[in-house]
Write a structure and sequence with these properties.
Elements: E1 5-16, H1 55-67, E2 71-72, E3 75-76, E4 79-82, E5 92-95, E6 102-110, E7 115-127, E8 131-135, E9 140-144, E10 151-157, H2 164-181, E11 193-203, E12 213-216, H3 221-240, E13 248-253, E14 258-264, E15 274-275, E16 282-283, H4 286-295, H5 300-311, H6 315-321, H7 325-340, H8 346-365, H9 376-387, H10 393-406, H11 410-416, H12 425-438, H13 440-447, H14 454-464, H15 471-481
Parallel strand pairs: 12-13
Antiparallel strand pairs: 1-10, 1-11, 2-6, 3-16, 4-5, 4-15, 6-7, 7-10, 8-9, 11-12, 13-14
Helix pairs in contact: 2-3, 5-6, 7-8, 7-9, 9-10, 12-14, 12-15, 14-15
Subunit structure: Heterotrimer of A, B and C subunits.
Organism: Blautia pseudococcoides
Pfam family, one: GatB_Yqey
């Protein structure tokens, strides 16, 4: 039997903060824009320009640190990390090495097999670099400084994760916290959340850490999971062959599902860190921290607990509805409108439409939750007409799909397209009689005990009524006449 290996993983996660302006100047921090249009002398590193710290960056970093159970450095400082690269206009990056804003926190995660705490070593503020665009056609590289100076918080975990499942659980938890706080949208595809994976393997039972590698260029949770599995196998293969793992930075190619070496791993000394002479220390008072704490919104776990306790939802439904702050907000607004309309059991009814139809259509359309177009008012209106028996469930689902795509007013749409259920019992009875008269054999089967044929007869009536009858009423009338 071969050796058993354990994977040891720590993460460095960069979260781009959702401030209007950059960290040290007044330029727009918005994603996109024509190249080099969100720039000024400060974020393009012009000689003589001076940085001025954006207070909102500190407040967002503090909010995130407190939500992740971190301690706060009452005095934190900025340092210069020196390196030379075309996307780094000053030839140094302003970051925090010696006195970061927060340290010593943790996040609790849960996977199918484990529930544990992942310790956070530190969180620090820094500026992002620009972006290089490699033009294969012209065989050159172009640089866009729009992203240069966009504020980041880097969250450095301890090496507490042991599998790709734990890594994804940690990242999902971190992303949810950021989104609930409103400090970042955490869109991996736009680079507003980026994770570098530090990974090593060691023999199972060993307490010594193996030689680690750092993997970059990971822009989706699926790519992160694949990269972890690929790097784990690569390192085990090296050890099995009696070779050494080199400490290096590797770039993951998700198309080829392979990583390749970029450079040998640097230490802090390679960056020649020293305190930034242009920025004074940031003093964070108890009163300031208290104000941030008081402003903290209800986070996912608290919200899910409240949905169970106050709204009577199941733990699973509450968990699903709170996996996106945007979805939870839409749900709560819908529930509030149903209360105004005095619809009984509003929370459960709204939950069913969000969990059943909305999540299904999002998946079918390949859409993000934030792309939902319909308004809470329109969904509440549709639920209300269902409750009054004006449309049956089948018609309501068809109308909902149109509302999902175009945000039409469902009440007007039902009226204009003649989709209201036929509630005239006399008209229904005539159709029921016609169906019974046209299916004597089925009637005979029912009367000899084969009651399952009732479903067929209901279907025939619904067909005659073009789906505009209430199935329960049809069922009752058929049962009475049979």
């Amino acid at each position: 039997m071969g050796k058993q290996y354990e994977t040891v993983i720590g993460l460095e996660v960069h979260v781009e903060l959702a401030t209007a302006a950059k960290i040290f100047c007044g330029c727009s921090a918005k994603f996109g824009g024509a190249p080099n249009t969100h720039t000024c002398p400060v974020c393009t590193g012009m000689p003589g320009s001076l940085p001025v710290l954006n207070k909102q960056v500190v407040e967002y970093a503090l909010a995130l640190g407190l939500a992740a159970n971190c301690r706060v450095n009452r005095t934190c400082k900025f340092d210069r990390k020196n390196y030379f690269y075309p996307d780094n206009p000053q030839n140094y990056q302003i970051s925090q090495l010696y006195l970061p804003i927060c340290y010593g926190g943790f996040l609790e995660i849960e996977t199918a097999s484990v529930k544990k705490k992942i310790r956070i070593h530190e969180m620090h503020m820094e500026e992002d670099a620009g972006k290089l665009i490699h033009d294969a056609w012209e065989d050159c590289s172009l640089v866009d400084y729009n992203r240069s100076g966009v504020p980041l918080v880097e969250i450095v975990s301890e090496p507490d994760m042991r599998s790709s499942e734990e890594v994804i659980a940690y990242l999902e938890k971190l992303r949810l916290i950021c989104q609930y706080l409103g400090v970042s949208d955490c869109k991996l595809q736009e680079g507003s959340m980026r994770a570098d994976v530090n990974l090593s393997v060691r023999e199972a039972g060993s307490s010594e850490l193996g030689t680690r590698t750092e993997m970059k260029n990971l822009n989706s949770f699926k790519a992160i999971a694949r990269a972890i599995e690929g790097e784990r196998e690569r390192q085990i293969e090296l050890l099995e062959e009696g070779k050494c793992v080199q400490q290096e930075t590797r770039r993951w190619d998700d198309n080829k599902e392979y990583s390749y070496a970029m450079r040998s791993k640097e230490d802090a000394k390679d960056y020649r860190y020293f305190p930034d002479p242009d920025l004074p220390p940031v003093v964070i008072s108890e009163a300031w921290t208290k104000r941030i704490k008081e402003r903290q919104p209800e986070l996912q776990e608290e919200k899910a607990g409240r949905y169970e306790k106050e709204l009577g939802l199941s733990a699973y439904d509450a968990w699903l509805l709170t996996q996106s702050r945007y979805l939870a907000d839409l749900f709560e607004q819908t529930v509030s409108l149903l209360e105004e309309k005095k619809i009984a059991g509003g929370p459960k009814k709204a939950a069913n439409w969000f969990i059943g139809e909305t999540l299904r259509l999002l998946k079918d359309r390949g859409m993000e939750t934030e792309e939902i177009r319909f308004t809470p008012g329109h969904l509440a209106g549709l639920i209300a007409v269902c409750e009054k028996g004006e449309v049956n469930n089948r018609t309501a689902k068809k109308v909902f799909e149109i509302m999902f795509d175009k945000d039409i007013d469902p009440v007007s749409y039902i009226e204009e397209n003649g989709l209201k259920s036929v509630t005239d019992t006399g008209a229904l009875e005539r159709v029921v009689d016609k169906v019974l008269a046209g299916n004597p054999k089925t009637v005979e089967e029912y009367q000899t005990g084969k009651t399952k044929v009732l479903g067929f007869l209901v279907g025939q009536v619904m067909k005659e009524m073009k789906g505009k009858a209430d199935p329960q009423t049809v069922n009752r009338l058929l049962s009475e006449k049979l």
